[in-house]
Amino acid sequence: MKRRMAVGFMLLAAMLSGCVAVSRQYEGAKLPTEKLAGVEIGATTRQDVLDQFGPPVVIQKRDFEGLVSSIGSSFQGDELTLQLDPKLLNEVFIYEYRRVNRFSVLLILFNYFSSVDKSDRIMFFFGDENRLSGYGLSEGLKEL
Prior knowledge:
Layout: H1 2-16, E1 18-27, H2 46-53, E2 58-61, H3 64-73, E3 91-107, E4 111-126, E5 132-139
Antiparallel strand pairs: 1-3, 2-3, 3-4, 4-5
């Protein structure tokens, strides 16, 4: 009887053996949101943004050919005339600070993984003469 209990206990211990991991990963630099007070739409230039905020994580430019082909694919007819605002083709600077929290339990019979990914993001939109036409701030890290 004692031998069965010992074997049962050893099997239970073997099944429950494993590891637990908790990690936190940061990507990018913390965003200097206090500098947004010095940003003025229509006056701040592209170079001013680069000087104040440094290089962006992403510089996004609209794909003109992709835009036209997506419009053309939904059009049915013989003639298509497009009038696009040139501002649609300007660059967008994206600054992002991301945090990822991970938790995992690895056992022989059971595995559990959890990952929560949140980020703060500033986007700067440029218009005529590389002047700022707008910006947006999303603060997702407050949710963690």
